Amino acid sequence: MSGLTKQNIGSFLARQGILVAFALFMIGFTLANGRFLDPDNVMGVVRSSAILGVMALGVTFVVISGNLDLSVGSMMSFSTIVVLDLHDKIGPTLAIPAMFALTLCLGALIGFLVGYLKLNSLIVTLGMLSAIHGLTLTWSGGKNMDIADKEATWFGIFGQGEIIGIPVPILIFALLASVLGLILAKTPFGRKVYAVGGNGTAATFSGIRRARVVFSCYLMSSFCVATAGLIQASRSMGSQNTVGQGLELEVLAAVILGGASLLGGSGTIFKTVIGVLILGFIQNGLLLVGLQFYVQYVVTWVIIILAVWLDIAAKRGKLWSPIA
Amino acid sequence: MTEQTPVLRLENIVKTFPGVRALDGVSFTVLPGEVHALMGENGAGKSTLMNVLGGIYQPDEGQIIVSEQPAVMTSPLEAKARGIMFIHQELSLAEELSVAENVYLGELPKKRFGLVDWDTLYARTDAILERLKVGFDARTRVGDLSIANQQMVEIARALTVDAKAVIFDEPTASLTDAEKVVLFEVIADLQRDGVGIIYISHRMEEIFKITDRISVLRDGSYRGTLHTRDTDEEAVTQLMIGRKLDLSRSESTHELGDVALEVRGLSCGHLFEDVSFHVRRGEVLGFYGLVGAGRTEIAETLFGLRDPSAGTILLDGQEIRIHSPVDAIERGISLVPEDRKGQGLVLGMNCRDNMTLPQVSDLTAGPFVSDGAEVAIFDQYRDKLDIRTPGWRQLVGNLSGGNQQKIVIGKWLSMHPNVLIVDEPTRGIDVGSKSEIHNLIRELAAQGYAVIVISSEMPEVLRVSDRIVAMYSGRVMRTFTSDDVTEDNLIQAISGLGDGAAA
Question: A200: part of which helix (H) or strand (E)?
Answer without folding.
Answer: helix A200-205
